[in-house]
TrEMBL record:
PANTHER family: MULTIPLE INOSITOL POLYPHOSPHATE PHOSPHATASE 1 (PTHR20963:SF37), MULTIPLE INOSITOL POLYPHOSPHATE PHOSPHATASE-RELATED (PTHR20963). This is Multiple inositol-polyphosphate phosphatase 1b. Residues 1-21 form the signal peptide. Transmembrane segments: none annotated. It comes from Neolamprologus brichardi (Fairy cichlid).
C-alpha cells in the first residue's frame, strides 16, 4: 500500500542496525541488500537464486505427537517488484541528467561505473511505468504461489483452486491486481502440473477470480485519524523532516555528491530518495555504488521484513488437543510474541494472549474517534 509503505520506509531509517549474516551466493549485486522496502525477496531467501521453486515443508511445525493437519491458511502478501513511481522516475531522470551535464566537468571520475552513468546509461523509464509490476514482480508471485502449493498440498490443491475454495482479495492498485493475477497463475500452473517453463504456461488460459476490496486493503486511505493526524500533519512528521535535513543526511548527501563528482549544492535533498526505488537489476549496472543506504553504511530491518512479495501466513491446524495456529513470516516460522514456548500454540492461547487487540481495537473508534456497534472480532 502506497501511503503506508512510504511511511514505513521513512520509519526504516530510524530503526537500529541489524547484523546480517553475510550472503554467500556470489551473484547477488553488492548493493542489493540496501533497499529497505524496495529490497528483492531473494535477499531474505538467497537460496531462491539457485532454485526459485524450492519449497521446504519442514517449516510447518505443529507438535508431531498430536497428528495435526493444516485446515486453513490466511496469507497477507505484498505485491512483487515494481517500477519506480512517477515521482521517482522524474527524480531519476533529473539526477542522471545532472550527472551527465555537471559531473563531466568535474575532476577525476575515472571509475568505470561513473563513466557508464555519464556516457552510456539512458533514463529508460517512461512515465507510464509508474509503479507497475515488472516481469520479475510477476515471477515473484507465481513462484511464491508454487512454493506455497508444495508446502500446503491439501489446501492449495488442484480441486480447491478449481472449485474456487481459495478466495483472493486485493486493493485496486494496478501492481496489486497484477500480483494477485500472477499468484493465481502460479497456483493454476502448479495444479496443472506444468513445469516452470513459461512458454508451456502461455498456452493455458489463466482464470482469475479475485475481488477488489479497498475498504479492507487500503483501510488507511479511509482512516481519517491517520490521514489528518499523520499523513497530512506537518507536526506529526516533524521528526522525519528533521532527519531529512539533519547532520547524517547532510553527510550522506555530501559523500554521494563526491562519488558522483557533482558540486555539493547540485545534489538537493529532494533528489535523494531515489535510490530507494531503483529496481535492482538495472541499478546494478547503472548505479553500482551509490545506494543511499550503502553510503550511510547501514542496512535496515525493513529490507528483511518487507521486501517485495513479503508475506505473512497464518496456518490453522486441526490437532488432537484442539486447533493450533502457526505464524510464518516470509515462509519462515516465527513464534508469536508472548507465546515463545511453541511454534504452533493452541489457538485458544493465541486468542487469549491477543485478546486486548482482537477485542480492543475498533477501526471506527481509532479512525473516526467514535464507537460504532460491531460484531465480535473473528479475524483470528
Ligand atoms: C498532528 O500531530 C501532532 C503531533 O503528533 C498531534 O498532537 C496533533 O493532534 C495532530 N493533529 C491532528 C489534526 O490530528
Ligand atoms: C564499490 O564499492 C566497494 C566498497 O567500497 C568496492 O569494493 C567495489 O569495488 C566498488 N565497485 C565498483 C564497481 O566500483
Amino acid at each position: 500500500p502506497g501511503g503506508v509503505q512510504s511511511f514505513q520506509s521513512v520509519l526504516g531509517l530510524l530503526v537500529p542496525r541489524l547484523s546480517f549474516a553475510s550472503l554467500s551466493v556470489p551473484d547477488i549485486p553488492h548493493i542489493a541488500g540496501y533497499f529497505g522496502t524496495k529490497t528483492r525477496y531473494e535477499e531474505v531467501k538467497p537460496h531462491l537464486l539457485r532454485d526459485p521453486l524450492s519449497a521446504d515443508p519442514s517449516v510447518l511445525r505443529p507438535p508431531p505427537a498430536e497428528h495435526c493437519s493444516p485446515v486453513h491458511l490466511t496469507a497477507v502478501i505484498r505485491h512483487g517488484s515494481r517500477y519506480p513511481t512517477l515521482k521517482n522516475i522524474r527524480r531519476i531522470r533529473k539526477l542522471s541528467e545532472l550527472v551527465r551535464t555537471e559531473a563531466s566537468r568535474a575532476s577525476g571520475g575515472s571509475e568505470s561505473w561513473l563513466q557508464e552513468i555519464r556516457n552510456r546509461w539512458e533514463a529508460w523509464y517512461t512515465e507510464d511505468m509508474d509503479g507497475q509490476l515488472v516481469m520479475k514482480g510477476r515471477d515473484d508471485l507465481r513462484q511464491l504461489a508454487s512454493r506455497l502449493a508444495s508446502v500446503f498440498p491439501s489446501l492449495l490443491s488442484e480441486e480447491n483452486v478449481r472449485k474456487r475454495r481459495v478466495r483472493f482479495l486485493t486493493s485496486s492498485k494496478h501492481r496489486c491486481v497484477s500480483s494477485v493475477e500472477a499468484f493465481q497463475e502460479g497456483l493454476q500452473r502448479e495444479s496443472l502440473g506444468l513445469t516452470s517453463d513459461l512458454c508451456v504456461w502461455a498456452d493455458a488460459e489463466p482464470e482469475y477470480s479475485h475481488e477488489v476490496d479497498d475498504e479492507l486493503m487500503r483501510f488507511f486511505d479511509r482512516c481519517r485519524g491517520y490521514v489528518d493526524g499523520v499523513e497530512n500533519n506537518r507536526t506529526a512528521l516533524l521528526e522525519v523532516e528533521k532527519f531529512k535535513h539533519g547532520e547524517e543526511m547532510e553527510g550522506v548527501r555530501r559523500r554521494m555528491a563526491d562519488r558522483l563528482g557533482l558540486p555539493h549544492h547540485r545534489l538537493t535533498p529532494g533528489l535523494l530518495s531515489f535510490p530507494n526505488s531503483v529496481p535492482k537489476q538495472r541499478s546494478q549496472t547503472a548505479f553500482p555504488n551509490i545506494s543511499l543506504w550503502r553510503l550511510a553504511g547501514r542496512r535496515f530491518r525493513t529490507s528483511l521484513i518487507v521486501p517485495y512479495a513479503a508475506n505473512l501466513l497464518f496456518v490453522l491446524y486441526d490437532c488432537q488437543r484442539g486447533p493450533r495456529l502457526q505464524l510464518l513470516v516470509n515462509e519462515s516460522p516465527v513464534r508469536f510474541p508472548g507465546l515463545e514456548a511453541e511454534d504452533a500454540p493452541l489457538y485458544r492461547d493465541v486468542r487469549a494472549t491477543y485478546r486486548h487487540l482482537l477485542d480492543g481495537c475498533d477501526f471506527h473508534r481509532e479512525c473516526e474517534g467514535r464507537a460504532v456497534g460491531r460484531a465480535p472480532n473473528t479475524e483470528l
